[in-house]
Amino acid sequence: MRTSIATVSLSGSLTEKLTAASRAGFDGVEIFENDLLASPLPPREIRARCADLGLTVDLYQPMRDMEAVPDDEFARNLRRARHKFGVMGELGADTVLVCSSVSPLGIDDDSLAARQLHRLASLAQDFGIRVAYEALAWGRHVSTYDHAWRIVEAAGHPALGTCLDSFHILSRGSDPRGVEAIPGEKIFFLQLADAPLLAMDVLQWSRHHRCFPGQGGLDVAGLVRHVLRAGYDGPLSLEVFNDVFRQAEAGPTAVDARRSLLMLQEAVGVVELPEPVVPTGVAFAELVTPDAEPVAALLGALGLSRTARHRGKPVDLWERGEARILVNTGPAARRDGTGLAAIGLESPDPQAAARRADALLAPVLPRRRAPEDTPLDAVAAPDGTELFFCATGRGPELADWRDDFVPVTATQAPDPARIGPARVDHLALTQPWHQYDEAALFHRGVLGLHAQESVDVADPYGLLRSRAVTDADGGVRIALGVGAAPADDTLHAQHIALAVDDVVAAARAFRAAGGSTLPIPANYYDDLAARHEFADGELETYRGLDILYDRDAGGAFRHCYTRTVGRVFFELVERDPGYRGYGAHNAPVRLAAQHAGRQARRTAG
Amino acid sequence: MRTSIATVSLSGSLTEKLTAASRAGFDGVEIFENDLLASPLPPREIRARCADLGLTVDLYQPMRDMEAVPDDEFARNLRRARHKFGVMGELGADTVLVCSSVSPLGIDDDSLAARQLHRLASLAQDFGIRVAYEALAWGRHVSTYDHAWRIVEAAGHPALGTCLDSFHILSRGSDPRGVEAIPGEKIFFLQLADAPLLAMDVLQWSRHHRCFPGQGGLDVAGLVRHVLRAGYDGPLSLEVFNDVFRQAEAGPTAVDARRSLLMLQEAVGVVELPEPVVPTGVAFAELVTPDAEPVAALLGALGLSRTARHRGKPVDLWERGEARILVNTGPAARRDGTGLAAIGLESPDPQAAARRADALLAPVLPRRRAPEDTPLDAVAAPDGTELFFCATGRGPELADWRDDFVPVTATQAPDPARIGPARVDHLALTQPWHQYDEAALFHRGVLGLHAQESVDVADPYGLLRSRAVTDADGGVRIALGVGAAPADDTLHAQHIALAVDDVVAAARAFRAAGGSTLPIPANYYDDLAARHEFADGELETYRGLDILYDRDAGGAFRHCYTRTVGRVFFELVERDPGYRGYGAHNAPVRLAAQHAGRQARRTAG
Question: Is the ipTM value over 0.90, yes or no?
Fold first, then answer.
C-alpha cells in the first residue's frame, strides 16, 4: 500500500518537510494549508518539487466549516472553494479534505449538510477533484464516522466520499467495526495517528499529543484491519499534531514516522518484514574515553579484569563472568569525554537481526572496520548508540566477536575469590529529549523488546521520565531516560548496572579496592526504617555502604552507585528474581546526591 | 497573616529552596518528604538552618494511605508514624499532613477511618503534634472537603483537624461556601494553588499543572474568603506542583510566589498595598545597540527623526508624533546585539506606581543614574526589561523625562508632510520560557493591566504562545510571547509596532525612503482572495507592499513588518478602532518568512 504523511507532522519549511518525507521513503504527502501559504514557492513549483522527489500530493485540506450553514454563508464557502480548487489543480492534488463543521453558525440538519456537500462535490468534479468528508471528534453536529458516512450516503454524489481518521474514531471510543459497512470505494482517504491514553479535552489532546502509531495507546492497527476489510485501497497517511515533533528535526522524525507505519503494515499483514530476532543478553558495553586511567581504576575496583586487547584498535576488554566492558581510547571516540558508545547484544542470529533493523530503517553500520576484523552486524539506535548483534562462545558456526581480541598475559588474571559482578543487569541510556517515544518504538520494533510503563522521576532541577525495554527473561534490560525539556541532556548521565549475587559483599570489596560509592544521606535510612522491617544490623550495614533498598510484590532490590566518570557511572545491583523494577523509588535521592557531588566538585575546582 | 510555601514548589536542593523562600520574604515552609530524605543535613540542622533564615517549619507531609485500612496494615502505619513523629520533633514541625487514602486496601468505612485517625492523633499528641486530615480530589473513598471534615468531627480528637487545599476543593467543583460551617480552630492548615482550566484527569492536572494563585483560572481568593470567615488564622501556604517551576531557578520562582500571595491577600482584604496606577500610554521604547547605524537607518526610513540627545549619556531620542524611540549606544547596553531594553510608561503618578511595584517585590532601580539627571521611577520586569514610570509634557508638577535631552539642531526637523507613525500601537516582548505565567501576573499586579487569553501560534520550528496585557483604552498594549520549550529564546525576536493612519501610504513612504519590508509569499494573497472580498486593486496593493490583513467582529487590521536588526524588528499597524487582536492569524506566515530570511542570510554569509 502507498504511504503518505501530512506536512503538519514535520518541522521546518515546506521544502524541508518534502525532502524529509521523500528521503524517509514516503510515496506521498498531505499538504497542510498553512505550509503552502507560508511557502515562497507557487503551487506549480511545489508540484514540480514533489514530482522530483517522487512524492504525490495525496490530499489538501484548506476548508473548514463548510457544510450545514445558512445559504449566504454557504455561497461564501463555495466562492472560497472555487479559489482553492484552482490552487489544487496547480498543486496536482485531486482529493480535498472537508472536516465536519465546528462553526457556531452550523445547523443541525443532516439533509442540509448532504445537499450542500452534494453542491460542493459537483463543483469539485468540474475541477477533477474528489471531496473527502470527515467527522471531527469535536464537530458541532457531526462528530462520529458513521454519522459522516450517513450524510455522504444521503448526498449520493460520485465525487463525494468519506475520510476516516484513527484519532477521531478511537479517541471517542466509537466501535470501529462499523467501518466495514462502508463500501471501500467510498472511503476516499485514511488518516492515521495514535495518542497516549490521556483523560483530557479531546481538542487539546488532538492538537498537542498525537503521536505515530505504536507510540500511544490507541488500537490503530485494529482500525486499519477494519478499513482494509471494507475494501479501502488508498494510501495510509499519517497526520500527527505534536508539540515535540514541531521542534524536532524533520529528517529523523520522518524516518521514525515511516518506521511506525512499516510496523503497522506488518501488524495488519500488508507488508512482510524479516522476523524480529530478540536478543538474549548483553554481550558487552563499550565505553569511549579520552583517558583510560579513571575508567580502568573504576573497573578494577568493581572486580573486572583487563583480559584482552583488540588486535587492531586501542580497545581493551575488561570482564568478570558475563559482565564485559570494552574501553575504547581510539580516535573514533566521537563524543565529548567519557561515554557509553555501543552495546553488544547477544543475538541468536546476528545477520537476521541486522536485516530486520535495516528493513525498519535503522542505519546499518559497516560490517568490518578493518580488513582483518571479524564481520560484525551493527546498527545505530536513534540516540546514536551503536548496537552490535553478536555471539559470544556459541560454537564454530557463529563468529565470536572476541576473536579480534588478543589475550593480555602481562596483567594479573581475574581472582576467582574476589567478589564481583556476574553480568550486566541493565543499561540506562539518556535520550535526546524529543526522541523518547521514538526510542521505545525503535527498541520494540527493531529488537523485538517489550516496553514497560513510563515512570516520572523527580530530579531537584526537573522531572525526568524513564521507560524500560526488556526481553521476556530479563536477559536484556535497557532503561531509556529523558529530561522534561531540552535542557542540558548531558546533566543526566548514562549508567551501567552490574548484577552481583551479594551487594553487601560486592560493595565492601569495591571499597576495599579503593572505590568510592555515591554518598547517600542518613535521612534516607531513617525513612527505610520507618517503611520496612529489617534484621538486626541490616540497615546499619546498608547505611555504612551507601546501599539503597526497594521492594515490590515480587521481591527486593538492593543497589549502590559509583561516582560518575565523564557521563557514565556504574551501579551494583542485587535483584530478587521476582523484582521487576529498577529502584525508581530511590532515583530522586540518587539524583540529588549526584547534583550535590557535582556542586561540591565545582566549589572545590 | 503568615505566609508559607511548600518546598516542592521550588527547584534545587533543600538548602537552596529554604534560602529562596527566606529571601522572598516567606515566614515559613512546608517540608516535602523527598526533600528531607535527599538532604545531607540531619533534621536538627535543617531546623537550625530554618531558624537562621527566619523560617518556621509549618508542615511536614510524610504519610500516605494511613486511614481506613485493615488492622495489620494500620499497625504498620502507626509504626511508620511513630518514626516520622520523632523526625518531626527534631525538625521542629508541629503539624503533619495526612491525605485521604488512595490505597487499593482502603475500606469504605467512615467510622473505621475516624477510629484510626483518633488513634493516630493520640499518638501524635504524645509528641506534641497535630494531625491535619485532607481530602485528595482523587482519594479512593474520601475526595471532598466536607467528607473529610465529617470524619474529623466524628473522630473528635483535639489533636485532629482538617487541612483545606484550594486545588482539591475547586478542581472538583465543590461548593466552597460549606467551608464556613467548619469551626476555624479545626482548620489546621490551608494550602493554596491555582491551575489553568484544563479538562483533564485531575491527578495529572494536580501533579503537573498547578500554578500560583492568579496565574490560573480557579477562584482561589473566593475560597480564602470563606476560610477566613470560618475563623482560620493559620498560615496561607502555597503548594504547587508544576513541571516548569521544577526547572526554573528557585530564587525568582519564590519571588513570583510571594507576589502572587500578596495579590491574593490584597484581594481578600488582609493586606493593604499601594493602589495600582494604571499607565495610560507608551512614553518611549529604548533600544540598546552596539551599532547605531542600522537602527538609525531603519528609524529614519520609518519616518522618525532624531530630535534630541541625552545630555550625559550616548542616548538619542527619535520621534514622530507620540512615537518615541531611544537609541542607547552606551556601555550600559548589557545585552548581546541590538535589543529592546526599556519601556517608558506614561503614568498618572510615577512615584505611586513605583511604590506599588516595590510593594509587589519588583526590583526598584536607582531614581538617578547621574547627579544631574531628572529623577525617574523605574523597576525591572521579570524578563529584565526596565519599566520607567514617566510623564511627557504634563505640566510643571510632574518632571518630564525629556528634560534630560538636549535638542539636536544640526539635523533636519521632522517633515510634517512625510507619512509616518503617530504612536506605539504595541510592544512584543519575548519572555524566558519558564516565566510566561509569571510575566502576565506581574503586569497585571504591578501595572494594573488586564491580561487577554493566551493564543498558540505555529512557528515552523515549534509552537509559540502569546498573551497580551493591556489597559482599558488600548493606550498600553504589551504582547508577552514565549517559545514552547527552553530552545533558543533569541530566535523569536522582540518587536515594536507603530500605529499609522494609513498603512499603504506609510509602507510606500518607508520603501521610498530605502526601507525593506519583510517579503510575504504570493500564496498568502491567493488565500486572502479566497477568504475576503476586496475592492478592485486593493489586494494587489497589499501584495505589492507586503501588507498583511486580518479581520475580527470589530474591524480590520492591516500591517507590515520591517527586516530584523539584531533581536528587534518593527511593524507598521493600521488598526480599526474595534479590532482587538494583533494579527495572530498571520503570525505563522510572518514567522516562516523571518526563518526564510535568516536562512538566506546564513547561506549568503
Answer: no
